[in-house]
Specification:
The structure is a single chain. The chain is α/β, with parallel strands linked by helices. The chain is built from 13 helices and 23 strands. The strands form five sheets. An eight-stranded mixed β-sheet has the order 5-6-8-7-9-12-10-11, sandwiched between helices. A four-stranded antiparallel β-sheet has the order 2-3-1-4. Strands 13, 16, 19 and 20 form a four-stranded mixed β-sheet that branches. The longest helix has 25 residues, at 2-26. The structure holds zinc ion (ZN).
Length: 514
C-alpha cells in the first residue's frame, strides 16, 4: 500500500517537476511569456481565452498568446503543443524628436504632456490621474475651448497602450495632441473640433509595461503591468461580472474606472497593436450590438481612410480592416465592453500596426495613414441625435434615460449628463422613436430622423408628474374638474372655452358646441 502511494506520487510529481524547471528559466527575466499554438475550433479557443491572454495576432488557425507563470501552468494542463516565442530587446535607434520618428524616455513623455498644458493654457489641461507603485504616473490631457468647464459638448476619449508593448498609438496620440493644439485658431476644422468637443487623450495607459526595461527606452516593453496582469482582461465584464480574470483590480484599472466614473464619455477608442483592424463590440459574447450598423459605419470609415492615406496593404486585416470583436476571438474583462455596457460610452478598439512596437522610422508613415481617421472619429462625436433635456416648468437640466424601446438591448441606451442635461446618442441613419424618461416626470417619446455624419438636434422638456399645465394631451384618462380661462368652476355655457383637468394632472382646452 505504501509503495503504491509512493508510485502514484512520483507519477504525479514528474510532470510538475519538469514544468517548474522549464518555467523557472522561462520566467527568469520577465513575468510573461509569448507563445503560439494551433487550435481546433472556436469553442476550444474561447475556453483557452479564459486561461491565457489571446493576442491580436491570432488568425483562424494559429493562436498567439501571453501568459504569466500561473496562467502557463494552467495552460499546460490542457496538453496542447505550444511554441515559446522568445522576446529579445528591440534594437532600433531613435532618429529625431522633431520628425516624430522617436520614442521619448519616460521623463520626456511627462515633460511633453506638461508642456502641452503650459504652452496652450486656454485650451489644454493636464490631469494627473494617479501614481503607480513604481512612481510612474498615468496622465491625460483635456483639450477644449473653456477647458475644464462643463458645456453642451460630448466628451471624447482616446487612450493608448494598456498593453505596454503596443506602442504605435503612444506616439500617434502624442502627435495628435501636438497637431490639434498647434492647429487651433489657424486650421478651421481643428478649431471647430476644439470649440465643440471635450477631447481627452491619454497616450500611455500602462507606463510600467512600456518602460519595463527602464525609463530610458521602450525596447524591452511588456504587455502586462508590473504585477504581470493583462490590464485588458481586468475590467468588470457584462457577462462574467467583476474580476473575470480572478485578479484584484489593478492600480491602472482603478484609475480608469475612476476616470469613467467622473467624466461621462460619450465615445472613445482604445489603441492597441499587433494587427491592423478596427475591432467593435462585443468581445465577450456573440450577440450583436444594438447599433451594429453604426459600428460598421464608423469602423469602415476609419479603415477606408487609413487605406486611402497609406501605401497598399495597410489596415486591411480580417474583413478589409474591420471586425466584430467576438468573431475574431473572445475577450472577457476587456475595457471596450466595460465602457459600452457599464458606462454607456461607445468605445471601439484600434489595432494600429502589425509590429507592436514599430521601428521609429515607420512612425511618420503611420501618422500619415491614421491622422485623418483619428480626426474623423473625433468628429463622429458631434453626429447622431443630441440635445438638452430640461424640466418643462423650471427649465432646469435633467439626467434622464434616453432609450429606443424596440431597438435597445444590452445596455445600449444612454443618459443625459449633468450639469448641462446634454445627451448624445449615436445611431445609423433611420427613423427612431426615442423615449426620454425619469422618475417623477411624464415620459416623452419623439420620432427622430437621423442621417449618417449629420447632427440631429432634439431638445426635450419633461413635465413633472405633479404639475397642472397645458401639456401631454394624449396620455390623460378622466376629467376631474373643468374651469374657465379665469380659473372659475365652469357653468356649462355653450361656446365657452373651458379647461378640463384630468386625474393625472394634465389639462386640455375645450369648447362646448351644442
Ligand atoms: Zn492589445
Amino acid at each position: 500500500m505504501v509503495k503504491m502511494i509512493k508510485r502514484v506520487l512520483i507519477l504525479l510529481l514528474i510532470p510538475f517537476i519538469s514544468f517548474s524547471q522549464n518555467t523557472d528559466d522561462l520566467f527568469s527575466e520577465r513575468g510573461e511569456v509569448y507563445f503560439s499554438f494551433q487550435y481546433e475550433n472556436r469553442n476550444q479557443l474561447n475556453k483557452i481565452s479564459d486561461i491565457v491572454s489571446i493576442d491580436h495576432k491570432t488568425t483562424d488557425k494559429i493562436a498567439y498568446a501571453y501568459a504569466n507563470k500561473k496562467e502557463l501552468s494552467e495552460f499546460t494542463k490542457l496538453d496542447i503543443e505550444y511554441t515559446i516565442i522568445k522576446k529579445e530587446p528591440l534594437n532600433f535607434t531613435h532618429v529625431s524628436k522633431n520628425n516624430w520618428n522617436y520614442y521619448p524616455t519616460y521623463q520626456e513623455y511627462i515633460d511633453m504632456m506638461t508642456s502641452f498644458a503650459d504652452s496652450f493654457p486656454d485650451i489644454c489641461k493636464i490631469h494627473h490621474l494617479g501614481t503607480l507603485n513604481s512612481g510612474r504616473e498615468i496622465v491625460i490631457v483635456q483639450i477644449s475651448d473653456n477647458v475644464g468647464q462643463k458645456e453642451n459638448e460630448p466628451s471624447f476619449l482616446y487612450t493608448s497602450s494598456m498593453h505596454g508593448d503596443e506602442l504605435a498609438g503612444y506616439i500617434l496620440s502624442l502627435r495628435l495632441i501636438d497637431y490639434i493644439l498647434n492647429g487651433y485658431d489657424n486650421n478651421a476644422r481643428l478649431t471647430d473640433l476644439v470649440n465643440n468637443i471635450d477631447i481627452w487623450i491619454n497616450p500611455l495607459a500602462n507606463p510600467d509595461g512600456a518602460y519595463f526595461g527602464g525609463n530610458q527606452d521602450v525596447w524591452s516593453a511588456t504587455r502586462y503591468n508590473s504585477n504581470w496582469v493583462d490590464l485588458n482582461r481586468n475590467y468588470p465584464d457584462p457577462e462574467d461580472g467583476p474580476h473575470p480574470d480572478g485578479n484584484p483590480y489593478q492600480e491602472e484599472t482603478n484609475i480608469f474606472l475612476g476616470l469613467a466614473d467622473s467624466i461621462n464619455f460619450s465615445i472613445a477608442a482604445n489603441m492597441h497593436g499587433g494587427s491592423e483592424v478596427c475591432n467593435y463590440p462585443w468581445d465577450t459574447w456573440s450577440t450583436l450590438a444594438a447599433d451594429d450598423n453604426w459600428w460598421k459605419h464608423v469602423s469602415t470609415e476609419y479603415a477606408d481612410s487609413c487605406q486611402v492615406n497609406s501605401g497598399s496593404g495597410y489596415f486591411n486585416d480580417l474583413n478589409d480592416g474591420i471586425t466584430n470583436g467576438w468573431d475574431w476571438y473572445e475577450v472577457d474583462g476587456g475595457r471596450q465592453d466595460y465602457m459600452n455596457y457599464f458606462r454607456y460610452c461607445r468605445e471601439f478598439t484600434l489595432e494600429l500596426s502589425n509590429d507592436k512596437t514599430p521601428n521609429p522610422n515607420d512612425l511618420p508613415e503611420l501618422w500619415d495613414a491614421n491622422y485623418p481617421s483619428l480626426l474623423n472619429y473625433i468628429e463622429q462625436s458631434l453626429f447622431g441625435l443630441r440635445g438638452i433635456v430640461t424640466d418643462s416648468i423650471t427649465g432646469d437640466p435633467l439626467k434622464v434615460k434616453v432609450e429606443i424601446l424596440s431597438h435597445d438591448i444590452d445596455s445600449s441606451h444612454v443618459y443625459s449628463n449633468m450639469p448641462i442635461g446634454n445627451y448624445h446618442r449615436y445611431l445609423h441613419q433611420g427613423n427612431y422613436n426615442v423615449t426620454f424618461s425619469k422618475s417623477g416626470y411624464h415620459s416623452k417619446t419623439i420620432n427622430a430622423s437621423v442621417l449618417n455624419n449629420i447632427t440631429t438636434i432634439e431638445n426635450v422638456q419633461l413635465v413633472p408628474l405633479n404639475f397642472v399645465g397645458l401639456e401631454n394631451k394624449n396620455v390623460h384618462q378622466k376629467i376631474i374638474n373643468s374651469i374657465d380661462l379665469l380659473g372659475r368652476k365652469i357653468k356649462y355655457k355653450t361656446k365657452t372655452p373651458l379647461i378640463d383637468i384630468f386625474d393625472d394632472g394634465t389639462v386640455e382646452k375645450r369648447i362646448i358646441l351644442e
